[in-house]
Amino acid sequence: MHDILKKTLDKKYLLFILILYTVLSGLLLNADLPIIDEGPCYFLLSKSILSGEGYNNMFYPNNPSNIEYPPFYPLFLVIISMVFPKTIVGLKMLSILFGIGSLIIIYSLFCADCQRALNDKYHKLPCNYCWGLLLIICTSPLFIAYSVRVVAEMSYLFLSLTTIFLLEKYTRQDNSNKLYFWGGTITLIFALYTKTLGLSLATAVFVYFFIKKKYKDLVIISG
Questions:
Q1: What is the 3 state secondary structure string of 186-216?
Q2: Which residues of 175-201 are buried (b: 16+ CB within 10 A; e: fewer)?
Q3: Can you give the pLDDT at residue 36?
Q4: Are 163 and 184 in contact (CB under 8 A)?
Q5: Residue 22 confidence (pLDDT) above 90
Q6: Which DSSP state fits 65?
Q7: Residue 53 φ then ψ, to 5°
């Protein structure tokens, strides 16, 4: 009975965190596209793909091919642009959705950590710190600011956290479920094609699997 009550309360707390974050982000939503960040570049790249001109820099003379920004995030913008063709707000809402997903993954990671700590008689870790951390993150001005911009940061955050969650879960289950491995591998690839920062994530994954002596899986990921 206690476990059922705790799970119910956890879900209510998580729902409160997600609603609070969505409301705070929604209050800052507007149709502006500031030129101080990469938003206009991503926007024009998505328009170039949508118009059938390829992955070209429409903001340069002669529309040269783009080699600066990975294509995964602009491809997402193409999908959103097909649904909301005449507004920037829809593109910004995509970042909010990635932010919601990131909060859920953070919750899942820390809840798993709490559970392992509670099962360890030598290490008693209070689970309430997870909710305090989520509250700090969801109300962080920087986190909310990136949630209402047309930039790849929130999508990369979600993909990198999902990669960590899936691959960590896979290694702790003694290879019993390959779905976690393949899911983590796919999100790692997506992260690589979202921001070049994904190279650091890939390096960390390689080192992690090497330390865990999962050489076969390391070869698969490397391929």
A1: HHHHHHHCCCCCHHHHHHHHHHHHHHCCCHH
A2: eeeeebbebbbebbbbbbebbeebeeb
A3: 67
A4: yes
A5: yes
A6: B
A7: -90, 5
What is the sign of the dihedral through the CA atoms of 85, 91, 93 and 97? positive
Q: Using an 8 Å Cβ cutoff, are 159 and 187 in contact?
A: yes
Range of weakest confidence among 46-50, 190-194, 201-205: 46-50
CA 114 to chain centre: 22
Tell me how far apart the alpha carbons of residues 155 and 162 are, in angstroms, rounded to a whole number. 11
Distance CA 48, CA 46 (A): 5
The residues near 199 (Cβ < 8 Å, ≥ 6 apart) are 192
Of 41, 91, 49, nearest in space to 69 by CA = 41
Q: What is the mean pLDDT of the chain?
A: 83
Q: What is the largest CA-CA distance in the chain?
A: 67
Cβ atoms of 105 and 162 within 8 Å: the answer is yes
Residue 114 in this model has a pLDDT that exceeds 80? no
